[in-house]
Amino acid sequence: MKGKHQKHAKIARPQLGEYVRHEIGLLGAPCGMIAELVDQVGQRLADRYRTIYIDADHGSGEGQPVISQLTDMIGYHQWTDSSSWSDFDHKIRLSSYDLALVNGNHFHAKMQIPIIHSAKRDSLQRKLDRLDRIVAVIIDDVESPYEFISEHIGPETPILSINDVDAIVDLIASLAPPPVIRGLVLAGGQSQRMGTDKSQIDYHGLPQEQYMLEQLAPLCQSVSLSKRESVKDDLTVIGDTFSGLGPYGAILSAFRSDPDAAWLVTACDQPLLSTVHLERLVQQRDRTKVATCYHNPDTGFPEPLITLWEPRAYPRLLSFLALGYSCPRKVLINSDIQLLKVDDHSFMKNANTPEERDQLMQQK
Fold first, then answer.
1. Per-residue pLDDT reduced to its tens digit, 262-284
2. CA gyration radius for the chain?
3. What domains does the chain contain, in order, with CATH numbers?
4. What digits encode the pLDDT tens for the residues 101-125?
5. How many CA atoms lie within 13 A of 228 on its CB side?
6. What does pTM read for this prediction?
7. What count of Cα atoms within 13 Å lies in the side-chain half-sphere of residue 262?
8. DSSP conformational letter for 351
9. Residues 196, 198, 203, CA angle at the centre, nearest 5°?
């Protein structure tokens, strides 16, 4: 029997809900109360998540704009869009956010927290079809969950008071864990100036690519080599699926293999780089940014090949590529990043020629 025909390429998809990776619908209370709770929670999570609130306008819908409008409000931007949005538009345009808090009175979300409020009992009961993954219950002016809610929860489902905002914040944070970190060593270059494969040069008693894998390993859930081609049955090698783009294509290929991970990227030709320098990127990581990286005083710009790229970098890298740019440094320069400065930046030096190799051999 012939196998089923695969019409489209099978690639890894990010684990999104209706809008973003982590989304929680709050429903069962007046919309004003939900908005107030979201504001309190969002402020306390601001240093850990880029959060967006999804709500509906209760107006009549009259006076809709004829054209879209982008207004610079000095401190922020306001965007009015006259076009209709599909489910894909939501995911594309909200790709820079980690967490969506959703007014569940109007919209469905991947996870739900019903709020037990006496004035909205009947309204909540009519929305049972939206309660397919209750992760907690919030009690307002009723002592315990309604019976029709209790039927949808287990004995270990947290039941919290609406006044205990700290507990609500802690719960939401536990439901939206940070992306795992995977390591990537760029070892697919042609080494034309060096005249020999840079990844195999022995600076530390073993091939440089292996040395860099060992530097990344303590900080990452897994480590991989980036090569021009994949190696059959070798899961530690990520082949270049964006050919002809150099490091840019290697980073995209890594994200293509796991779009939900953060990728700690290094090059194989930086023999002075060690776990100490990489660990600082992890320790000072800002998950709300596109990336965390070092400032390179020699270039005056961010150093893209010693960088921790967050998952939100993947659609941004693809967007720059669609505009005709394939320089990871340009993406960093034009993005919201965490930029670290150091007094001694010698670990950023790379060896592209035999002369540079010999010089760095003496410094290691």
1. 999 999 989 999 999 999 999 99
2. 24
3. 22-56+68-175 (3.40.50.300), 181-363 (3.90.550.10)
4. 999 999 999 999 999 999 999 999 9
5. 8
6. 0.92
7. 24
8. -
9. 115
